[in-house]
Fold:
Amino acid sequence: MSSVRELLNLEGHVSVITGGATGIGFQMATGLAEAGSNIVLCSRKVEVCEASCAQLEKLGVKTLAVSCDVTKPDQVEAMKDATLKKFGRVDVLMNNAGRAWVAPPEDTPLDRWQQVLDLNVTAALICAQAIGREFIRQKRGKIINIASIAGIVGRNPKAYSSIAYSTSKGALVHFTRDLAVKWAQHNIQVNCICPGFFVTPLNQKLFERNRENLEAEVPLHRTGGPDDLKGAAVLLASRASDFITGVILPVDGGTVAW
Structure:
């Protein structure tokens, strides 16, 4: 029998977080690093990843910054190879990279729709395939998909209107469930975190315009804070979740319960 501290301990683990250099991705990367995990950050802007890795190394973990467009299978394979070359293992994949296009449904351009689905859904498959082959080989692994409460329920257009984003996150929710069932035979746990509204540099202006409407939808009457996703991330990355798979976990101040 293991203690709770032992179950949640990530020392020696290696976690890959796509789009993890900023925003909620960096919050969760920080949480994993605080639990002891070494961290791999990847995005198209490697200099941003390098700066964030430098901050994480102050926590006493090792890091790797990789330039990677996660919609490109060859670049994802190269990222995986770089991870294995440096660390010799990979334990956690967090599919966090994403984007949105805000517009009414009737005005959403098809090219923007496709860009959102390519990054939010197709890239998750590409990364899961590349890292998942390693998980299958080693007979263990954790995949954490970052969706949104917009993928669970319809959103008030006065607060937020992005049909492409909500559709893509709904697809990621079901991708999680089906992949969890298909890869349970390999001892791979696949789960999904659905954040509510967290203020980030990308949505700061949207929040300032719609703060009253956004906060009115949350029973706790506030948006997500700088520590609110850490616990969920550590739980789903650790041995404490070895019997948890296919779960969709809202972290939203009660929004979808209202």
Q: What stands out?
A: The CA atoms of residues 47 and 221 lie 36 Å apart. The first helix runs from residue 4 to 8. The first strand starts at residue 14 and ends at 18.
